[in-house]
Fold these 2 entries.
Entry 1:
Amino acid sequence: MAGSSVSGGGGGRPPLFATEKPKRVLAYRLYAGTIFAGILLIWFYRATHIPARGSSSLGWRAGLGLLVAELWFGLYWVLTLSVRWNPVRRATFKDRLSERYDDDQLPGVDIFVCTADPALEPPMLVISTVLSVMAYDYPPEKLNIYLSDDAGSAVTFYALHEASEFAKHWIPFCKNYKVEPRSPAAYFAKGATPHDACSPQEFLRMKELYKDLTDRMNSVVHSGKIPEVPECNHRGFSEWNETITSGDHPSVVQILIDRNKRKAVDVDGNALPKLVYMAREKRPQEQHHFKAGSLNALIRVSSVISNSLVILNVDCDMYSNNSESIRDALCFFLDEEQGQDIGFVQYPQNFDNVVHNDSYGNPINVVNEVNRKII
Ligand SMILES: O=c1ccn([C@@H]2O[C@H](COP(=O)(O)OP(=O)(O)O[C@H]3O[C@H](CO)[C@@H](O)[C@H](O)[C@H]3O)[C@@H](O)[C@H]2O)c(=O)[nH]1
Ligand SMILES: [Mn+2]
């Protein structure tokens, strides 16, 4: 373990996580200090080079705009300097968690995925995120996945229904071959090759199933019509009629995978996580409070259906890129000494839906590789 560590634990047991000082604090301080010095120099330059009164009004306005931007950036840097100055790292001990808790002793986890607009957030992307969280390395009997669809879209419901079937193949594939990331869209987009012990035939079979699903979804998204095939006889589809719009619809709650039903197993015969579709009621005259409103409704609905101790929330465009995230979070929540003081664990976001050549620097590599590593 690097540097000095302030740890959790308790009752003579080793802690489930440690808070460590990273080794290269001086390098980080130098990095933070040079940027701060640069900011001071810019402010000094601005203070000593105020455009003369007589200069063009465009020059004045541009100068003022730059000054405001630089002041804001500088202020932001100063506010966040505190964490850069005294950086810490958190390390979890998932092996100790597994030693201390059998699968049936682990707490239930309710996972909330939010979506709001099938045009901006394509259903294929939404279900890839749902599949990534269904495939967490966690006992499926303890997992309950809720998709909140603020648009109340039949196409999104159809997509989730398709995902509930695809999951029967995808989850065992991920678990048997330790696939990462577990979002099929991200996995196949990265030009994945067969994993250890996964025969090329098995890999190609999965890829083919995924392609079939994508083709089916594309044609439904394109036509906007749900196919009239026996698979779509789920009673949930009867909730929709011509009067329903994204901004004006009644509430819909449908349990698509229910552990109490015998068919809720994957192709290997293992249990599947519970899967729930939810669209809260929306009316044009009533404020819906965006994502916060949907989380509120999710808490109410999940408290009746599964009421788990732990809640995990992801946006529909933020798939899970680490199948052990739940176990990581539990190391904080279940630590005997410090767990009681921890109510919230946040993971950093990584972006990979970037434009060609990443002109906008969206993957925020510096933040992830330098700043966040040490927070
Ligand atoms: O009426 C709404 C509007 C949005 N959302 C969902 O809220 C999430 C975030 O919305 P988005 O438009 O994608 O915002 P971003 O700027 O991409 O998200 C960042 O900023 C949001 C708040 O500003 C945070 O809630 C997000 O977690 C964070 O990733 C998405 O899953 C949406 O589907 C709803 O559920 N209902
Ligand atoms: Mn988003």
Entry 2:
Amino acid sequence: MAATKQISLEELAKHNKQGDLWVAVDAKVYDLSRFAAMHPGGLSVLVDEDVAGKDATEAFYSLHRHEVLQRPQYARLQIGVLEGARAKIALREPGAVSLVPYAEPTWLAPGYHSPYYKDYHRKFQTAFRKFIEEVVLPDAQAREEDGKRPSQHVFDEMAKQNILALRMGPGKHLQGKVIMGGVVKPEEFDHFHELIMAQESARIQARGYYDGLGGGTYIGLPPVVNFAKPHIREKVTAEVLTGKKFICLAITEAFAGSDVAGLRCHAKKVQGGWRVTGTKKWITNATFSDYFTTGCRTDKGGLVVLLIERGEGVETKPIKTSYSTSAGTGYITFDNVFVPEDHLLGEENKGLQVILSNFNHERWGMTAGSIGAQRCIVEECLKWTTQRKVFGKPLISQAVVRAKIAAMIARVESAQNWIENVTYQMNNMSYREQADKLAGQIAFCKMYATRTAQETATDAVQIFGGRGITKTGMGKFIEHYHRTVPFDAILGGAEDVLGDLGVRQALRKMPKDARL
Ligand code: HEM
């Protein structure tokens, strides 16, 4: 329990030297006498006459994130509270919304309205944010750092709450399931709930872990759900959605990225099935997956998608990318792997249809997450520029800084409004209509969101200066964001490819009789 002894300013002032050193931060008094020599910022800054025995709140928040004081080893240095002073720093409770302007999309900001979200979206959002902050976030920060895959207890908890099943979007697979203790009925769950999930999950600000946490399921399982033989579909879906087994989508190769038609991994038809030989690269979750939804080229030159189980001839090794190995990004080699006939997804030589069928949903989900992460950076920058003082004034008092913040806010607001519009269309269109009408919209929206995300990352680094390129301390999320933001711009289709796709889709629909 925090110490409550009342300490006057006079008493505080008496403890102002090495060996007997107290400071007050936000109305709490800390005895730093023994800690001072171990202080990561050095002893000299603490024995400074403006700090030792004084209220050092401003100096503290210029240099540390609040979380420092929450670490048990530092929290226990508190010996009392400053007499007559009131704590001013209010921390958000888990699940609560931030009151920092633009830190939330308007539908969540107090006093604003939205045509899209209903009361059950709000309830779901509150429960989901709490879940993310209490269950996922601590593991996310630790695993992003040590590079291990997300801990099994997080998957187990997600399975228990049926969150893994929600990652497949709305649909029959949710029938009869109790979602997060009943906070939303399966038949009510729609694409706005999914949008909430993507944006809330992005708040962990651990990009590798974010993909580690079922990124493979999100893109690897839908082809099984939609195209597998019933007995395979039931078995694999049950295993994956209960967090017992893992699956990934193995399409990209060293030879072919966005150019799916250029795949070389070869499936040879044999008695009772197929023999697969080839490689796959940059496959999210590959290092810990049990199943691989794999695109292969057939003898006839067509494409086939096979569900390959980890076993003889299958090897995975981690690829070190600029985000954490927590994502399980891997290189896969298939060496004459036997795949039984009933593991075919869809039809022979019609694999492209299987692969393409999920692209829109994948890209839309990535865009939603990317915008959520971008918004967190806006909040970080707003907090930093108002609390950080340079030349005696807060950073935000510089016009050039305000101009950067203005651009950041405009970008994230426009991207959010766009994704909400697309989501509304998805809610009101059949899958076929979505494929026909939204492929271009989603491609453009993703291209725009990730382009603006990179601009915001660059601006944020300028605002944070050296801290924006330092992995710990005040700017740690900025450093992380700036380093990992290109993933959103590459995975699921590079920006240029998506832009081109969107224009080609538009051209297909140009009326033949349109003239200036
Ligand atoms: C309860 C009191 C304090 C604790 C527990 C504490 C703890 C820490 C920790 C853990 C760091 C490492 C950086 C981080 O993780 O954010 C740090 C850095 C630092 N601290 Fe403190 N600190 C305290 C008070 C102060 C005060 C009053 C000053 C006043 C000037 C100060 C000045 C610094 C400086 C200059 C750094 C280096 C910052 C940087 O590298 O950007 N600290 N402190």
